[in-house]
Every structure is written in C-alpha cells, then in structure tokens.
Amino acid sequence: MLVGDKNYQSIWLDESDPSVIKAIDQQKLPFSFEICELRSVEDIYSAIKDMTVRGAPLIGAAGAFAIYLATLEMNSATDPVHHLENAARYIISCRPTAVNLSRAVNYVMGKIKDKSSVKSLSETALAAAMEICEKEKENCRKIGIIGLPLIEEISKIKKGKPVNILTHCNAGWLACIDYGTVTAPVYLAQKEKIPVHVWVDETRPRNQGARLTAWELGESGISHTLIADNTGGHLMQHGMVDIVLVGCDRATRRGDVANKIGTYLKALAAYDNKIPFYSVFPSSSFDLGISDGITEIPVEERDPDEVTTISGISGRDIINVRICPEKTPAVNYGFDVTPAKYITGLITERGICRADEEEIKKMFSDKFQ
Ligand code: MRU
C-alpha cells in the first residue's frame, strides 16, 4: 500500500543485503513511520513478542523468515537438524493464538527437510518464506473481491448513503503484508466510488485500532471515526452500524473464531441488533483439527502492564503513563473466541460461507483430514 508516494509491504527481504529482513515498526505508528531491520532468529522473536510486527498473517510471514535467518546462522560446527528444529520451536512459542505462526514455520521446515547443504537450505527457506508472503497478499486481494458485493448490496439498500462498517483491532495491510483482510473490500468500495465510513474501535489495551487502523484508513483517505471500545453497542442500537467486519487469528472446523479481545462482545451486540457480523480471513487462519474454540484455542496472556498503562505521544516522545493506582492488579487476555452461532459468515479467499462445519467442509474439503 502507498505511504506518501511509496509502495510498501509490512515485511520484505532487503534485496541489497539478503541477510536482512525489513519490516514496518508497528510500535512506532502512527507517531513515526520507521523501518526496522531483523537480522537473526532472536530479532524476529523479539519483534513478534513485543508486537513490532503483529497480525496473524504477518507473524506467519515473519516466522517463515526466521527459519531462513536460522539457516544463515549455521556454520560448519552446527548440527542442522537440531539447530533448525530449535529455531522453529522457539519462534512458534512466541505467540500462541494465531495459528498462522506455526503453520508458516512448519511449512518452511517441511520444504527444507530434505536439503543438506547450507546453500540449498537457505535458498529453499527463503523461497518458501517469499511464497508465503505472495500467497497472503493474493489471499487478501481475492478477499477484497469476494467481500465487495456485501458492501455494494448495503449501499444499494441505503440508496448511496455511506455504508457504516464497524471494525475491531487491526486487520489491515500492516497485519497482512498488503491490502489487509477487513480493509481489502473497503479499499475496493472506495475505488468503485461507493461511500463508506468505518467505525474504528480503539482496541485497548494496545490500541491497534486507534494507532494502526486509523492510520491506515487516514493514509488512504477513507472516512473513519475512532470510538472507545464500549461504543459499538450504542451505535448498533441507533442504526449507525450496517455491518461488522473483524479479522481472525484462528478459526475452528465448526466456525468458532478467535480474534482480538473484545470481538466477542461486538458479536453479541450485533446479534442482538440483527446486524451482519463477518469474520474476514485467509484460509491460513483455519485450524481445522479443532472444533470447540472456547476450550481448544490457546488464548495468549500478555503483560498486565499493557492494561495498567497506556502509551501515546508527548511532544516528540512516545511515552507510557499509568492509568490506575500503583498496585492495582490487572490481567491481560489478548484474544477471545466468538462462537459460530453469532457469526453471519466467514469471508475467505475462496468465497463466503456460513460458520458451520458442513459449509466449511464443502469449501475447504482439501484442507480437512
Ligand atoms: O495481537 P495482535 O495485534 O497481533 O492481534 C491481531 C488481531 O486480532 C487481528 O485482528 C487479527 O490478527 C487479524 S489480522 C488479519
């Protein structure tokens, strides 16, 4: 996507020095646009852990590049199998909820398992990581085309008045290498001159909505309004939301969806107000080996400091301030699970299906064991 007049992905290989992976530093946005350089498995681990890079498809791509960097860390004394398996385990352990991370790392590991020379290991791992990036970009592009008619239909019913879309967290191009999942149909609607307006949940505690989604939409000139997380229900009761589009970090075979904490409450409010609620994601976010999202999806628990503090800009510095008494205990669950019954449909690169096992199986029969 364009930032100013330059086209960016959220992660890429530095062509002038292929031992370096570059990524947009999402910790600095929207206050400054900075590129970070990732040169080792440890760099990638830290970047995923502290959310310099974040979003399900992006952490998958970063994990894939980590295996490539692991091959570059080998020397004549290295036991390749031990070294690469350790690197894979380490990276996968970084964040537990988005299945894209383990899927991408395991994909690269599968591709390199028969290679023996360091050169062929590196070349194959790099090709596999690049393939994942291209595939995710293509998935988002297709999701845009598949999701657009939903917005078109609402626009027709509203006789050209803006279609109000509510979203939570960031399922935009920063999270997905390019285009985004939720944002892909929105960009296409803008291109088709369909008036759209996006309600952006701030998404405490890390404020991905306020910091990232608002920035992305602003850069693309898409009309949007930031709201406090608890505002959505009120807007829905007053006819101010036409459709809810959220991302996904892991979806089960029966269509339960884990996404950023707070998504479930939006789904309940949408259900109560008969507002269509869609989860938008590439098939790399499916975990078809599990069924019950609430008991089977591991939910990341993060540092309580993210809840007791808030970060923002003061002058030129990004600062953290405490928002509660010094010793207040806090807990920080990163994700929640929205049960399939509250989801109108799943928008994927293959089409839109109901969130139920039979429908998912029909569309993704090749991915079911
Ligand atoms: O903790 P994050 O910021 O990595 O969580 C991300 C989300 O919940 C996104 O909405 C999700 O990954 C979908 S990204 C297309």
Can you lay out the helices and strands and say which pair or pack?
Elements lengths: L1 E2 L2 E2 L3 E3 L7 E4 L10 E4 L2 H9 L6 H17 L7 H13 L6 H14 L5 H40 L5 E5 L5 H4 L6 H9 L4 E6 L6 H12 L4 E4 L4 H6 L5 E4 L3 E3 L4 E4 L2 H10 L4 E4 L5 E2 L5 H4 L8 H4 E6 L2 E6 L12 E4 L6 E4 L2 E3 L3 H7 L6
Parallel strand pairs: 6-7, 6-9, 7-8, 9-12, 10-13, 12-17
Antiparallel strand pairs: 1-2, 3-4, 4-5, 10-11, 11-16, 14-15, 17-18
Helix pairs in contact: 1-2, 2-3, 2-4, 2-5, 3-4, 4-5, 5-7
The structure holds 5-S-methyl-1-O-phosphono-5-thio-D-ribulose (MRU).
Quote the distance from N terminus to C terminus: 36 Å
- Output the structural class: alpha/beta
Number of helices: 13
**Overall tally of domains:** 2
Work out the oligomeric state of the chains in this entry: single chain
Widest sheet, order of strands: 8-7-6-9-12-17-18
Write the CATH architecture name of the largest domain: 3-Layer(aba) Sandwich
In the CATH scheme, the class of the largest domain would be Alpha Beta
Bound molecules: 5-S-methyl-1-O-phosphono-5-thio-D-ribulose
Give helix % range.
40-55%
> What is the CATH homology-level superfamily of the largest domain?
Translation initiation factor eif-2b, domain 2
If you compute it from the alpha carbons, what radius of gyration comes out, rounded to the nearest whole angstrom?
20 Å
Low-confidence stretches: none
Q: Output mean pLDDT.
A: 97
- Strand tally is 18
The 3D shape can be described as: globular
Largest sheet: 7 strands, mixed
What is the percentage of strand-forming residues?
15-25%
